[in-house]
Design a protein that fits this description.
The protein is an alpha/beta fold and 353 residues long. It has helices at residues 12-23, 52-59, 74-82, 92-97, 99-109, 118-127, 152-155, 160-163, 173-181, 183-196, 234-242, 273-284, 288-304, 312-323, 332-352; strands spanning 2-7, 27-34, 45-48, 63-66, 86-89, 113-115, 135-142, 203-207, 213-219, 224-228. The strands form two sheets. The chain has a six-stranded parallel β-sheet with strand order 3-2-1-4-5-6, sandwiched between helices. It has a four-stranded mixed β-sheet with strand order 8-7-9-10, covered by helices on one side. The structure holds NADP nicotinamide-adenine-dinucleotide phosphate. NADP nicotinamide-adenine-dinucleotide phosphate binds at residues 8-14, 33-37, 49, 52, 67-69, 72, 90-93, 117, 169, 171-175, 233.
Length: 353
């Protein structure tokens, strides 16, 4: 029996995880956390907000599913990695912000870091532990979001409601906006760099509107392995929670003869600036990825609150990245300072747009 802690249990990923755990006799929910919604009686150990590492200390889980949204998920990510507890990671923001610290904690702790993001789960399976020198490049696919094919002019007045209407995935509001701006793919690019130890010039992003191919790995011998499936987060959640068992899920297999379309195109980096900005932040390293994430969180909240136009999100992030010094963080305190400084700059900038 695997004892699971689900952090962010009331969210899109958290609720799907409950369904997976409920259907699997080998998985037991021992701890659950939300940010503000009541979850009394859901598990033996529950916590609403506060320091989630206290809940993890009490519950002693075998697997932590971190499905909190945003930088708030960071202490739980570092706790699991440091303690050698398997981490099923949906909260990509923590790995983006604290990549170097997280990789060091994973090495010290000796546990497993199992990606829940569908593209990274797919890449993890294609790579299957093969050494990085056998890999030529990794390709992450992006649906392109609801505004694929639009020009900058056409995006000037889009509303939060339009940006929240994602064509292929049903997700929480923050990641849905990130998908509309392509910031999500930028975060995933940085996430892939830290998860798989690949330099940025060997991670490519392509737009694939039907979201059937989740990732593809090109190997040095000319072979490529891809991971395919209908877009349904229950597949990667189940894979990470039950790893390496691969239990059955209610998700149907691909119907190839039914007219499956596999089309790909290059992302429009001029219109969707955040993908290019994320790559730049990743390549610069230090706390630039942390600043990218912090500024993006601030800008997305401002957009959802009606205080910033859609294109203002990239403007705020770009200005913030230009103003921070990006000094590498020696420890969590340094990182928290870098995050706070980027938020302060981003808030000031957002108020001016
Ligand atoms: N949704 C997807 O399909 C998908 C796919 C890939 C990756 N992800 C990643 O998974 C994470 C969660 O996404 P989501 O779409 O599930 O988000 P969501 O639906 O907005 O849910 C967020 C969850 O986090 C909780 N939370 C927020 N702040 C918290 C805090 N300070 N302490 C404890 N819990 C807190 C929320 O609790 P309350 O309800 O009480 O506020 C809620 O349970 C994100 O990092 C996202 O990028 C999501």
């Amino acid at each position: 029996m695997k004892r699971i802690a689900v952090l962010g249990v009331t969210g899109s990923i958290g609720r799907q995880a409950l369904e997976i755990i409920g259907a699997h006799p080998g998985l037991e929910l021992v701890a659950a956390a939300s940010g503000s919604q009541p979850i009394d009686g859901l598990a033996e150990h529950v916590q609403v907000g506060g320091d989630l590492t206290e809940l993890l200390e009490r519950a002693e889980p075998d697997v932590v599913l971190n499905a909190v949204v945003g930088f708030a998920g960071l202490p739980a990510t570092l706790w699991a990695l440091e303690h050698g507890v398997d981490l099923a990671l949906a909260n990509k923001e923590s790995l983006v912000a604290a990549g170097d610290l997280a990789v060091a904690a994973l090495r010290r702790g000796g546990g497993r870091l199992l990606p829940v993001d569908s593209e990274h789960s797919a890449a993890f399976q294609c790579l299957d532990g093969r050494p990085s020198e056998t890999v030529d490049s990794l390709v992450l696919t992006a649906s392109g979001g609801p505004f694929r094919g639009r020009t900058r002019e056409e995006l000037a007045d889009v509303t939060a409601e339009q940006a929240l209407a994602h064509p292929t995935w049903s997700m929480g509001p923050k990641i849905t906006i990130d998908s509309a701006t392509l910031a999500n793919k930028g975060l995933e690019l940085i996430e892939a760099h830290f998860l798989f130890g690949l330099p940025y010039d060997r991670v490519e992003v392509v737009v694939h509107p039907t979201s059937v191919v989740h990732a593809l790995v090109r190997f040095r011998d000319g072979a490529s392995l891809a991971h395919l499936g209908y877009p349904d987060m229950r597949v990667p959640i189940s894979y990470a929670l039950a790893y390496p068992e691969r239990p059955s899920t209610p998700v149907r297999g691909l119907d190839l003869a039914g007219g499956l379309t596999l089309a790909f195109e290059a992302p429009d980096l001029e219109t969707f600036r955040l993908l290019a900005l994320a790559r730049e932040a990743g390549e610069r390293g230090g706390t630039y990825p942390c600043a990218f994430n912090a500024a993006n969180e601030v800008a997305v909240a401002a957009f959802l609150g009606g205080g910033l136009p859609f294109l203002g999100i990239a403007e705020v992030v770009e200005e913030t990245l230009g103003a921070v010094d990006g000094t590498p963080a020696r420890d969590l305190d340094d990182l928290v300072d870098a995050d706070a400084e980027a938020r302060r700059l981003a808030e000031r900038r957002a108020a001016l747009v």
